[in-house]
Amino acid sequence: VQLQASGGGLVQAGGSLRLSCAASGLTFGSYDMGWYRQAPEKERELVASLSSTGIPYYAAFLKGRFTISRDNAKNTVYLQMNSLKPEDTAVYYCAADNQSGIKYASSIHYWGKGTLVTVSS
User: What is the pLDDT of residues 51-71, one digit of tens each?
Assistant: First the structure.
């Protein structure tokens, strides 16, 4: 199984980025997908998840700024990030799970390698 995340980069505060995660080696449509992030010296935290049935979940701190979506035909999950803030700076990781553990980092079946998002003030 491979999860290849892309789309990170440097952006000014208030800007937008769209992350993509292309999955291979798994039956994508049957997996819950998620985005986590980890800032320096902080624990990895859940940003958003999207179940195999299309039910989204967002961390409370996002306050509507991010949107998760998936294209099962392309085996890809996306994270549209708007109104970015310096505190959003982190490595963003794509995750896949099919045992109802997508919201728990310790339960995740598969992780991608991460893509760095840097938001300048």
Answer: 999 999 999 999 899 999 999
